[in-house]
Amino acid sequence: MQTTLEILTHPLLRGVNHGFFTRKGGASSGLFSGLNCGRRSTDQAEMVTLNRGRVATAMGVPAEALATVKQVHSADVVTLTDAHDIAAVANTEADGIVTARRGVALAVLTADCQPILLADPDAGVIGACHAGWRGALDGIIEATVDAMRALGAARIRAVIGPTISQRAYEVGPDFMDSFLAEDPAHDRFFSGGPNGRPMFDLPSFGLMRLRDAGVDAVWSGHCTYSDPARFFSYRRATHEGKADYGRLISAITL
Fold first, then answer.
1. Per DSSP, which regions of the chain are E strands?
2. pLDDT, tens digit, for every residue of 91-106?
């Protein structure tokens, strides 16, 4: 069993410990082979706990200091203060988490959606958000940035980690209409696909929202759908008729 974790980092987030973890180096097997960190998957709970413990160790924090929320594709953000119980926060419905607290690692789970890690190292403020198409359209990115600024962040940098790319993201006309209803200029994030249906560019949409919010941002360039050896993908699992899928984890700590 491979136990060496593969952790992707980006120089834009220099000054803070961070990582976009691939599926390599985990204890799970079968559908979830590798580093599945999704507690809401049907994987064995003890394997998920072991995997999350490995992530915490890699981030330099105790397992109980790996802070996540109950992701629901919302625009809600939790500000983690020194008074918060991290185990209780894990049951809070939200899709962003920010803190100026040291000794904890903020983390989000994804399997095609955008994992976004944010930091202002000088101000000592970090954030993480889970931004699928619905959350991004509804404002989770801006809400995360606003919550960081409320803690004193001024010069925020952000990296979008492995997510589904436009070449793999076929959508329907109703999906496209929901974006055009907000702003007709959003048509630039869609192109025609091989089946005559729109193809959506999720990471470019995320970058636009980040940059419009005044954040220096980049995408790592990794497509979850196209690299099954390294990444879990909800859409790929669906296309293959699989009963479930693993969840990738991305984390950041001061």
1. 7-8, 17-21, 66-67, 77-80, 96-99, 105-110, 114-120, 125-131, 157-160, 190-192, 198-200, 216-219, 248-253
2. 999 999 999 999 999 9
What are the φ/ψ torsions at residue 6 (nearest 5 degrees)? -110, 120
Q: Tell the burial category of 141 from Cβ atoms under 10 Å away from its Cβ (0-12, 13-18, 19+).
A: buried
Q: What is the pLDDT of residues 126-145, one digit of tens each?
A: 999 999 999 999 999 999 99
Cβ(57)–Cβ(17) below 8 Å: no
- 61 is in which domain, residue-wise? 12-161+221-253
Q: How far apart are CA 230 and CA 93, in angstroms?
A: 28
pLDDT in tens, 158-168: 999 999 999 99
Q: Are 156 and 96 in contact (CB under 8 A)?
A: no
61 lies in a domain? Answer: yes
CA distances from 253 to 57, 104, 170, 219 (A): 12, 6, 35, 19
Give the torsion through C-alpha atoms of 136, 140, 146, 148, to 10 deg: -110
Which domain CATH number covers 147? 3.60.140.10
Q: Is the pLDDT of residue 2 over 90?
A: no
Split into its structural domains, the chain has a count of: 1
